[in-house]
Amino acid sequence: MPFLKINYSNKIEVTLGGAWDYKIPSSTIRQLEQIPNNKEISLKLDDDFDLDFCGGKILHSWCNNRIFAQNELLYNQKSKHILKELDSSQKPKDKTLHEEIIVAHKDSFKIIKSFSKKLYFAFGFLGEIISLVILSFIKPKNIRVKAFFYHTQESLIKAVGIVSLACFLIGIVIAYQGSIQLKQFGASILIVEMSAMLTLREMSPIIAAIIIAGRSASSFSAEIGMMKSTQELDAMSVMGFNPITFLVIPRILALCLIMPLVVFIADLFGILGSMFISSLQLDISTEQFLERFLTMVDERHFWVGMIKAPFFGLIISLIGCYHGFIVAKDTRSIGLHTTKSVVESIFAVIAFDAICSVIFTELGL
């Protein structure tokens, strides 16, 4: 049977003896619990002391709340082994409901936090750009004219060739597919109105915007991102130059002001493609096509496409520059944000075009 001797003379001396196993009486456990836990204890083991995991569990819990000047449980081979096993098999602390919710939604919180951070930065970025654009119009000398013409050439003039070819081919596709359907109803001549309306209102602006987004958004992100990774943006700030005034404003102005010209060229080549296939497939001569185009196609279809053009430029330039500024200082991040800028700008352009299409139709335009 286990027994317990307690001496309260100068300091608390506790001596454990007997077999501490599942037969430990409750009176012995109460004796243990009554020992004050705010004084040092000298714990000794009698010669016949023995211990199993049942007794070890009780002593282990009791020892955790006590201060020991001496603890022979830690020197006895068997008790040392049992206490070590009990330490390693301790159950984790029960989590509160609040902690459980945090653990269960840990990833969701990270996503929300990351999204909120990006949203905060995006609104700050947009607000700074708006204020600087207004300031640039108040003080035109702040506009970097040389940079404006450079980006006009790099982002738009060099893209005119591929935009023209793409719209010419799209015009061929629209006219060819439309002619097959219209032939069945004996209304081949309506191909002029159909192809012209589709080209002017939707296809030419959206194809031009997608090509410009693929070229310019990626270019803006890569250029500004590389400047950030090489700390050129920090150097500009230290020297007193605002990076947005020097890098973003010329790009935005270039795309917003020149994009209508690109869409006009796209319209022209789209109509040429339709005219070409109408002549081959439907025997509609160039003179007939142009005469019907000028008399039957409403001018408002042209202006619907042109109105959207500067907004396409604004969307592409904002997204491209924004991703350049949030690039981390490594090359992998530059590639990642370059890809994101292209994907997001194309999606934003298509979404904006869809909204405009519905609004203009509802307005009777």
Your description of this structure?
With 365 residues, this protein is α/β, with parallel strands linked by helices. It contains 13 helices and six strands. The protein has a four-stranded mixed sheet with strand order 1-2-4-6, covered by helices on one side. The protein has a two-stranded parallel ribbon with strand order 3-5. A hairpin with a 4-residue loop joins β1 and β2 (12-17). α2 (53-64) crosses α3 (77-88), α6 runs parallel beside α10 and α12 (299-325) packs antiparallel against α13. The radius of gyration is 40 Å and the shape is elongated. The protein starts with a strand and ends with a helix.
In terms of topology, how is this protein built?
Layout: E1 3-7, E2 12-17, E3 19-20, H1 26-33, E4 40-45, E5 50-51, H2 53-64, E6 67-71, H3 77-88, H4 97-104, H5 106-138, H6 145-156, H7 160-184, H8 191-229, H9 232-238, H10 243-282, H11 286-296, H12 299-325, H13 331-362
Parallel strand pairs: 2-4, 3-5, 4-6
Antiparallel strand pairs: 1-2
Helix pairs in contact: 2-3, 5-10, 6-10, 7-8, 7-10, 8-10, 8-12, 8-13, 10-12, 12-13
